[in-house]
Amino acid sequence: MVHLSFLSFFLSFFLSFFLSFFQSFFSFVLYFYLSLFQSFFSFFSFVLSFFLSFFLSFSPSFFSFLSFFLSFFLSVFQCFFFLLSLFFLSVFLSFLFFLSFSLSFYLSFLSFFLLLQCFFFTFLSFFLSFFSFLLSFASVFLFFLSFFLSIYLSFSVSFFFLFFLFFPFFVAFFHYLSHPLPIIYLSIYLSIYLSLSKFIQYLSIYLSNSVYFYLTHSVNFDLSIYLSIYLSIYLSILF
Asked: How much is the pTM?
């Protein structure tokens, strides 16, 4: 858009300069030919008057009338031709002036419109880039928030299961000193705990796949693969 506006500006300048030069050159050439034609008529009238004055000595009455008539006719024709040439010259120069003015006005308006359009698209691209930057920042912030929340929940759940894993051992150990039968209850508790940990392991795999799907659609693909593998290994070790 900027190239088009500058191109239209230079084109308007070149056309106005060319039309002004052509107008000046054509007016000079036409004026030169008019002056030459007028000089030719003046010379022709001078020669004719000379010859008429020469023949006037032989027959004064007829040649005097003929010289007056021819000089009057040549003067009228010269004036008429000169005025007609000036009229056509003024019409042609007015047409050239109007054409140069209209072309310069059209190209100036076109350059202004293209420049305005360029500014509008520049502002729109800046706004869209700023909006995309905000969206990328929000996606990165959500990714790190989800990552740290997953780590926090993993530590919380692991601490909870470790507490419930080792607490019955201590209870059973102190209770076994007086009663050996609660070891059966401990085995039942361990089987329930292992089943529940298997369920949590499947849930962690599902969560790692969900995180992998989110990461592939929000951040870099290679980074999402490494993070999902790390999360799956980490959750498998925990549970």
From this structure: 0.36
